[in-house]
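Hi everyone, sorry if this is the wrong subforum. Our group has a chain we'd like a structural model of before ordering constructs, and none of us has done structure prediction before. Sequence below.
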Amino acid sequence: MPLILDIAVTHIAGRGRQTVVAILGVAVGVAFSIAMAALMQGGQDDFVRQLINTMPHVAITDEMRTAPRQPAEDVFATAAISGLRPRDDRRGIINPTAAAAWLDTWVPGRFSTSLKTQGVIRYSNREAGAAVIGIDPMRESAVSPIIEEFVEGSFAALAAGGNNVVIGDTMASRLGASFGDTITAVSSDGLTRAFRIVGLFHTGTTIRDEGEAYVLLKNAQILSARPNAINEIRIKLDNPDSAPAVAHRAETELGYKAVAWQEANESILEALVVRNVIMYTVVGAIMLVAGFGIYNIISTITHEKARDIAIMKSLGFPEADMRRMFLMEGLAIGAAGCAFGWLLGLAMTYALSQVRFEIAATGQEMTRLPITWSILHYLSASAFALASAAVAGYLPARRAARLNPVDIIRGAS
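Answer:
Right subforum, don't worry. Here is the predicted structure as tokens:
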């Protein structure tokens, strides 16, 4: 084995320029694979993190996933119901106090009850459509992502006395209002109520900054003429991955539709899986191109060293040694390329992490490219590189091992 290794090193060193080019090809492929994986994984992780942080892990609403069964369906084996007229009642979660008390006994996290109604916010001669959300400030502070985004005031100011409201700074700018001014909220039923602005927030999400207004729960119930009603329970879990199980239990017990964040964003998560497949396909293609460089140099060596191979076989070296020798040459080039690729990939990833920019027009503000540092990126890129190097070394090695030494020495080949 040491003799075979020594001969393999001699072959590689004998073609220094080609060897260096092949190593650089592998190194560049590994480096770009690492940098691309870090950037794409970082973007995906940042996107999922924003989904988790900006929306409840489980949202229970006053909707039903399926229509309730009618009494006739339970009495008769076959029943066709058409033209059913629903009762004229205002939707809402029935007995919200009992529902909240039950959730308190087992939910591994925090939750907040609210009443959301559509309305219009007016100030001076301007108005803006908004979702008026009635909340309990203490519970809302434990689940809302807005708690860390206040420019002025806070949710706690809602309970300071009087009719108070918290709105986004974009809505305030559109209305021409500022902190401390009094605005008028108009419900969809035409009821009006004056509120004083005691808080301004800026999340960077346009739909939220210009379309949401938070008031006390009792004020929202008065504005919408729905006393003691709520229509949404938002849950933040200690472990976001347990959201489907919590949603299933809540829906089974309460009867209302409970949606986990994974279900609410199912199409987006499927798109991320497809993107990962594309990413690793591109990584494999890069490594395949680098493998052609290794194949080229090993193939050239086998062609130029045909007489040496014939002599070695005539001296008693078996075909397995021939295959092993050229396979080691391919793996040696691949391993050297991986080592340099790790260093270059680390440098490229660090350079990408230092890129600074801001995007405000899209609704999300960013100051740096999202980068994920993971040893798996380095190991997967190296695995692709070594696999392509092994294949690139094995193919000419198999051909060299099959050479007939008599034909070569006689000059027949």
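For your construct planning: The first helix runs from residue 2 to 14. DSSP finds 15 helices and ten strands in the chain.
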